[in-house]
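Lab notebook: predicted structure, single chain.

Context: the supervisor wants predicted structures on file for every construct in the current expression panel, including those that have not yet been purified. This is the next one on the list. No modifications to the sequence; it matches the entry in the shared construct table.
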Amino acid sequence: MGTSTRDLEQLLARAADGDMDAFGQLYHATSAKLFGIVLRILKNRAQSEDILQEIYVKVWERAGDFEPGRASIITWMATIARNRAIDALRRDKRHEVVDDFDIDQLADHDDLSVADDVERNDDLRQLEFCLGGLDDERRTMVRLAYLDGFSRAELAERFAQPVGTIKTWLHRSLKQLKECLGS
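Prediction complete. Output recorded below exactly as produced.
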């Protein structure tokens, strides 16, 4: 199997140019991992298979948006998978969603020790607290950029601002978060 990050990035770049064969190879190399993420969240094999298809449609559509310097390709794809699965969970009327924080914990859960879980929960609470210190628009922008993978151009369109302004706002917001998290 052993497909390197660089190989995956090259396959995604070729897919962005419309290369279906490259996209098929990317799917083959990553689908088991993404399916595992989705299944862990939804706990329903058939629904997870359906959502997996939605994920790869999204990856195909947004292949050109991937920026290697921002995150690894697996992190980028896993974020898309996680968000699609959480959206499906929220849409599903049979699940009672009490708290988004619980969903986020579930989505991020790996087989870690209890001590690691406690530490991660503390970190997540601190991050949520610090995000609460941003104004609503900036908080939404940070979530869209770093959790949903929106490009700066997409954010500029959504917030009706120039790309340079979006870049500045994101930079300032991240600086504010870093300062808050550092304290």
